[in-house]
Design goal:
Low-confidence stretches: 144-155
Number of domains: 2
Strand content: 5-15%
GO biological process, one term: translation
Mean pLDDT: 90
Bound molecules: guanosine-5'-triphosphate
Domain CP-type G: 14-178
CATH topology of the largest domain: Rossmann fold
Radius of gyration: 21 Å
CATH superfamily of the largest domain: P-loop containing nucleotide triphosphate hydrolases
Order of helices and strands: HEHEHEHHEHEEEHHHHH
Distance between the termini: 31 Å
CATH architecture of the largest domain: 3-Layer(aba) Sandwich
Helix content: 40-55%
Main location: cytoplasm
CATH class of the largest domain: Alpha Beta
Protein name: Ribosome biogenesis GTPase A
Number of strands: 7
Keywords: Cytoplasm, GTP-binding, Hydrolase, Nucleotide-binding, Ribosome biogenesis, RNA-binding
Shape: elongated
């Protein structure tokens, strides 16, 4: 899904989410575990306000397990409840409902004290395009998914999905825009496929990835492409070009006249990265944060 984010669209997206907030008890902020900060909406605190929030590091299966732990700690230190999950297979997804119970316990206790039967907790998933919102909704819905719409308080066209564990989910997620200003963020979003490659040059995106891999995952990089060595330092993206060239040579990415086809080589690297063939890679570490 490609969305052109102009100021008017952002205002509308923000307003739509804030309308939905009135209906729910808890927000699931879905981030890409490989690029948590880069996949975060810049205005999320302002949009969500004081509503209880669960930060979900999705696609944790593709990210480095140690980095997942560090990022979880990072967001916990900001006062959020955090879970690392894989919405495709469902790893970690079962922990969501108990976590919501814990987050809302005081509210539930107050209802019980007033003699009320606690109603299911209601959640809204928000996140940038391609972060896995629909996949998580489907996983939470499971086979026993039942829309429970047409009740008072249900916005027209929106349905509640029963997920079990005393949790109901709004079936339409809130779509948020990513950060645009920082070029590094743009490269990370393009590398993971969150924004279309054509927005940036694919060979530049690949060189950005190579610089990161050489710094944090050099053995993986050398092994995967049979590279004898890597440059001692890759201070900038341009310095990664010889590595891309070598990968192209090793993988037979040749264009007319037998020259290395950099775009083909970049395609090989990015496909390997996104499919997990390079192993579990996190493209942003808490250290990268200013
Ligand atoms: N490996 C892995 N892939 C995932 C996970 N969650 C989602 N995906 C994949 O990520 C891609 C995007 O998932 P969607 O659920 O369509 O994302 P979305 O946020 O609903 O996307 P938009 O509709 O564009 O807003 C799909 O190819 C999913 O299979 C996960 O936890 N692990």
């Amino acid at each position: 899904m490609t969305i052109q984010w102009f100021p008017g669209h952002m205002t509308r997206a923000k307003r739509q989410i804030q309308e939905k907030l009135k209906l729910i008890d808890v927000v699931f902020e879905l981030l890409d575990a490989r690029i948590p900060e880069s996949s975060r909406n810049p205005m999320i605190d302002e949009i969500v306000g004081a509503k209880p929030r669960l930060v979900l590091l999705n696609k944790a299966d593709l990210a480095d397990a140690e980095a997942n732990a560090r990022w979880s700690e990072h967001y916990r230190a900001q006062g959020h409840s955090v879970l690392a999950i894989d919405s495709n297979t469902g790893t970690g997804v079962k922990e969501i409902a108990p976590r919501v119970q814990a987050l809302l316990q005081e509210k539930i206790d107050r209802q019980i004290a007033k003699g009320m039967k606690p109603r299911p907790s209601r959640a809204l998933i928000v996140g940038i395009p391609n972060v896995g919102k629909s996949t998580l909704i489907n996983k939470l819905a499971g086979r026993a998914a039942a829309a429970t719409g047409d009740r008072p308080g249900v916005t027209k066209g929106q349905q509640w999905i029963r997920t079990g564990g005393g949790l109901e989910l709004l079936d339409t997620p809130g779509i948020l825009w990513p950060k645009f200003e920082d070029p590094e963020v743009g490269f990370r979003l393009a590398a993971t496929g969150a924004i279309k490659e054509e927005v940036l040059m694919i060979d530049e995106v690949a060189c950005f990835v190579l610089r990161h891999l050489a710094a944090y995952y050099s053995d993986t990089l050398k092994e995967r492409y049979g590279l004898a060595s890597l440059p001692e330092a890759i201070p900038d993206i341009a310095a990664a070009v010889p590595v891309l060239e070598e990968i192209g040579r090793r993988r037979g990415c040749l264009g007319s006249g037998g020259h290395i086809d950099y775009e083909k080589a970049a395609g090989v690297l990015l496909r390997d990265l996104r499919s997990g063939k390079l192993g579990r890679i996190t493209l942003e570490t808490p250290v990268d944060l200013a």
